[in-house]
Design a protein that fits this description.
Two copies of one chain form a homodimer. Chain A is of the alpha/beta class. Chain A has two domains: about 1-105 and about 285-290, Nucleotidyltransferase, domain 5, CATH 3.30.420.40; about 115-280, Nucleotidyltransferase, domain 5. Chain A has nine helices and 13 strands. In chain A, the strands form three sheets. Chain A has a five-stranded mixed β-sheet with strand order 3-2-1-4-8, with helices on both faces. Chain A has a five-stranded mixed β-sheet with strand order 11-10-9-12-13, sandwiched between helices. In chain A, a hairpin with a 4-residue loop joins strand 6 (about 70-75) and strand 7 (about 80-85). In chain A, helix 5 (about 175-185) crosses helix 7 and helix 7 crosses helix 8. The longest helix of chain A is centred in the last third of the chain and has 22 residues, at about 215-235. The two termini of chain A are about 20 Å apart.
């Protein structure tokens, strides 16, 4: 039995996982000052109430930069510079603890859930754009924890919008929820549209489904850049399947089909036949993936 | 003791490797019809003459597409569709045989030689542009054998030159030896130059060192695109060190320094401090890397 802990800005999701399935789940509030004490207390209570004898480990998905279990920064929570191995060892001496950033963990969760491939990427289109890369069943962290930071792949030079990271033309500036809105505003006067002066990414996709000219154009552009990113992942990490997740992915087929269309023209021949699918797990991916980090090194 | 076999278009380099050092090396001609028989005969002779009792395995670097020891295509030799495991098992039953494409193998060789990092990429700038990716001491092959095919990363949209692969704007169209010449021809009338009407990539770098305006411009452009590629590798596979190898890399500091300059402006903050170095092993990298494929799975 493993615990998979998905730490978010407002709540911590705690999953009890056996054989890659969530058998029980809970939520506690995220309180910056006592985060790991709160989680540990909850786990101890659960273990005691359920007379659990043996836990394989505790996996964490954290919203920020984590390398080798060292938490550099969780900006949305306001936590910095914590050695998670030490911190958890106070409460659970000797228990295996492994943490990764939430995009990596979600990718692993999605992969484990489908249980079809061992090499997968999940691109998460939310407020920003994240990506987790799973190779041979293990999350690729990267030497600086930057593997999968494709939100900052500068492939949208056509617009060259400034990104919060300091670079220009990042994928995130055109393919995140705010990026979708930014693109629609940029082209607002060029196409007919039923979009009001203020709107969300969801509005853009909803109107695109009704064949609104501006929104159709924007969805096609967003899909193009995501496809371009996948074509580059294809010749760098070369996996079987790319899951598209996050709020923007709820647009569904209109987005996924357009990504597939562009991918065919952008991909190198050797990697043309990959799967591109909407992610299905949504809220549970974090817990399942976090627990999935706990694997013995027999592989 | 391991054998590292580096198969080229005209010769096969055979290295005898112990503790990641080449202790003996030989060359035999590449003969399409009898390639693996010739190699096996040579190895059997060597083993017998030197009374070798135990070999750990035979590693191959092959110029083409190889996945899981299946040789799909070696275009420069004219060999297709060979199951190398079966083929070598005829001659060396039970001996561990592992093959990879030559760019991967050269990257592994360079990494083993320096023995400083376990995560490295080597970008080879030759007739084409190849790249090997080594993660945690192991070559990343990719599901379709396409991991590291960064020569076909379409990041030179500014020129959008057609590539042999069918795509446009591939890195290879501007950063290979022919790419360097192509760029210089493209800009030939825009800058003063001492370049004759026919010239090589080496001429461009040699004149750049003498501050020839056209050649300085071209070297800077080539370096920009290589830096852009490294900035993308930084947020996909995120390794410690990037070695620049192949014929074009012999230009030395003038190229490497320009790549570093552009990299600083193109890289995401988290990966700004990576090493970018000229590869040093050259001809021996293939043999050393091929032997380096032979590792037991205790890792």
């Amino acid at each position: 039995m493993k615990f998979g802990i998905d730490v978010g800005g407002t709540t911590v999701k705690i999953g009890v996982v056996e054989a890659n399935r969530i058998i029980d789940k809970y939520e506690i509030p995220t309180i910056k000052e006592t985060l790991f004490e709160d989680i540990s207390s909850f786990l101890k209570d659960y273990i005691s109430k359920n007379s659990i004898q043996n836990i394989e480990g505790i996996g964490f998905g954290l919203p920020g930069n984590v390398v080798n279990n060292y938490i550099y920064n969780l900006p949305n929570i306001g936590i910095k510079d914590i050695d998670l191995t030490k911190e958890m060892d106070k409460h659970f001496p000797g228990v295996l603890v492994i943490a990764q950033n939430d995009a990596n963990v979600a990718a692993l969760g999605e992969m484990l859930y489908h249980n079809e491939y061992k090499n997968a990427c999940m691109i998460t289109l939310g407020t920003g754009v994240g990506c987790g890369i799973v190779l041979n069943g293990k999350v690729l962290e990267g030497v600086h924890g930057a593997a999968g930071e494709v939100g900052h792949m500068c492939i949208a030079g056509e617009y060259n919008f400034s990104c919060a990271c300091g670079l220009k033309g990042c994928l995130e500036t055109v393919a995140s929820a705010t990026g979708v809105v930014r693109l629609a505003k940029y082209h607002y006067k060029e196409y007919e549209t039923k979009l009001a002066s203020e709107f969300t990414a969801k509005d853009v996709f909803d109107l695109a489904k009704q064949k609104d000219p501006l929104c159709l154009f924007v969805v096609d552009k967003v899909a193009y850049y995501i496809a371009k990113c996948i074509s580059i992942l294809g010749i760098t990490v070369d996996v079987d399947v790319y899951y598209i997740g996050g709020g923007v992915s709820k647009a569904g087929d209109i987005l996924i089909d357009a990504i597939k269309k562009h991918y065919k023209t952008l991909a190198l021949f050797a990697v043309k036949n990959v799967k591109i699918e909407q992610a299905t797990l949504l809220n549970d991916a974090g817990m399942l993936g976090a627990a999935g980090l706990i694997i013995k090194d027999e592989q």
